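Side project, low priority. Logging it here so it doesn't get lost.
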Amino acid sequence: MSTNTSEGRQVPRLDRLRILIVEDQVYMRQTIRQTLNRLGVRHVYEADEGGEGLKLTVRVRPDLVLCDVHMEPTDGLGFLENLRDFQNPTIAATPVVFLTVDAGEETVLKSRELAVNGYLVKPVSAAQLRETVNRILGPVIPAITG
C-alpha cells in the first residue's frame, strides 16, 4: 500500500529516499550527511556549489535538496532559480530546503518568490531535519528514538 502526500506525490520509502546536499563548507556537508545517516537516510549526495548541484539534481533525481544560500560561483538562489526554470517539469519541481545562517528579510522573500519549499537556519538539529523532510515528502523518516 502506497501513501501519498497532500499534493498527490507518492511518499518515498526510507530505504530509497535520495537527498542532495548543496553546501560549500565541507564540515557542514559532513555534519548534515551524518545526521541524515543517523535518521536512516542512506542515499545522500553532495555538491559544493549550485552549478554542480543542478547537474547532480538532473543526474540523481533526488527526492529533496538541502541547499546553502551563500556559495560561489553559483549560490543557492541561483541554483533554485535555474532549477525552477528547468525544461523538465519533474526536475523543476524538486523540493528544495534552504539551510543557511542568513535569515535576512531580502533572502527569505527572494526564496519564497522562487518557490523554496522550506527554510531552516543553521545549525539544524536531527529533529528539525526529520520534521522538515516529513512535512515536505510525507511520513518517510520515523520518530527519533534513544
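Brief comment: The chain has one domain: 14-136.
Revisit when time allows.
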